[in-house]
Design a protein that fits this description.
Largest interface: A-B, 26 and 37 residues
Order of helices and strands of chain A: HHHH
Number of strands of chain B: 0
Distance between the termini of chain B: 66 Å
Oligomer: heterodimer
CATH topology of the largest domain in chain B: Rna Polymerase Sigma Factor, Chain: A
Order of helices and strands of chain B: HHHHHHHHH
Shape of chain A: elongated
Strand content of chain B: under 5%
CATH architecture of the largest domain in chain B: Orthogonal Bundle
Distance between the termini of chain A: 62 Å
Radius of gyration of chain B: 19 Å
Helix content of chain B: over 70%
Strand content of chain A: under 5%
């Protein structure tokens, strides 16, 4: 590969030396570094504080709600005596299954109407 | 006891880099002090704008501070930083060119009085080139890098580097045509 350079441009680049003075540039960069470090620290403290508050205020009610909802959703619609058959049909034979099937039905109906 | 500014001034770079990678801000400040001139000059060459060059250089160092703990080979800090500067410049130009539109038919008014004016004219002309083109030109003419070295550093195909440099050189010659005429006049007088 040829790396030849244009002689006129070479001269111009050589003649136009750039003088860059420090002028507090390093201090500005380090101020930015310090600012970032402070922001990261504050962000972490804020996150931890938020998690602690969340834990204190909401963990109990949330756990209770989740438990109650799980119980309600898994309630059987029809009592099946045979153990293995009850297990097989459990995904459909429950409140959650009924909601799922209803949602699929509503979605299909909506698509038919829209078309 | 925390190190004071200048504490690492005489230290070998690889050692200072490894200390900075462990979170020593004084060591990093020393790296900034050592490398700032080179990065700012390269950015100035590429952008043609001193204020913009300083802003971009600052971004490069802040990014370097965030990522220095990931640097595996401490001896390669210089090329790692150079790579980061190049990425910063290309990223900036991609955003800027998308907003401004591609290479325009702009021209510049040449100052042409002394070496400072030559620098200003060159900066103005460089600022009119698309990002990758000005970068290849700066690395070739300012850094004296070969096409292969530029291709390796910028991850641009060698053929594309060559064409960027050829196209950029032509465009610069068009923009700085008055310098050709001055040169011809000087040669005639001689």
């Amino acid at each position: 590969m040829s790396d030849e350079r244009d002689p006129v441009l070479e001269t111009l680049f050589a003649e136009s030396k750039i003088e860059v003075s420090e002028n507090g540039f390093s201090d500005q960069v380090m101020a930015g570094v310090e600012k970032r470090r402070r922001n990261v620290l504050l962000g972490r403290i804020g996150l931890v504080a938020l998690l602690v508050v969340f834990e204190f205020l909401l963990s109990g009610p949330l756990q209770q709600s989740a438990g109650a909802m799980a119980q309600a959703l898994s309630t059987s619609l029809i009592e099946i005596e045979t153990g293995w058959l009850a297990d097989v049909l459990a995904p459909l034979n429950s409140v959650a299954g009924l909601i799922g099937v209803s949602l699929v039905g509503v979605h299909s109906l909506y698509r038919k109407i829209v078309r | 006891m925390p190190a004071t500014p200048g504490y690492y001034a005489e230290g070998p770079e690889a050692l200072v880099v490894s200390l900075a990678a462990k979170g020593d801000r004084t060591a990093f400040a020393e790296l900034v002090r050592r490398r700032q001139g080179w990065i700012r000059t390269l950015m100035r060459r590429c952008s043609g704008d001193p204020a913009l060059a300083d802003d971009l250089s600052q971004q490069v160092f802040l990014r370097a501070w965030r990522k220095i703990s990931q640097l595996k080979d401490m001896d390669k800090f210089g090329s790692w930083l150079k790579q980061m500067a190049i990425n910063e410049w290309l990223q900036f130009k991609r955003k800027n060119d998308a907003l401004r539109g591609a290479e325009g038919e702009a021209s510049i008014t040449l100052a042409r009085h002394d070496t400072t004016a030559i620098g200003m004219d060159l900066d103005s002309a460089m600022a009119l080139l698309p990002g990758p083109v000005s970068l290849c030109i700066a690395l070739s003419y300012h850094e004296r890098m070969t096409h292969d070295e530029i291709a390796e550093l910028t991850s641009i195909q060698p053929g594309t580097v060559k064409s960027h440099i050829r196209r950029g050189s032509q465009r610069l010659r068009e923009l700085l045509v008055a310098y050709d005429e001055t040169k011809e006049l000087e040669e005639t007088h001689e």
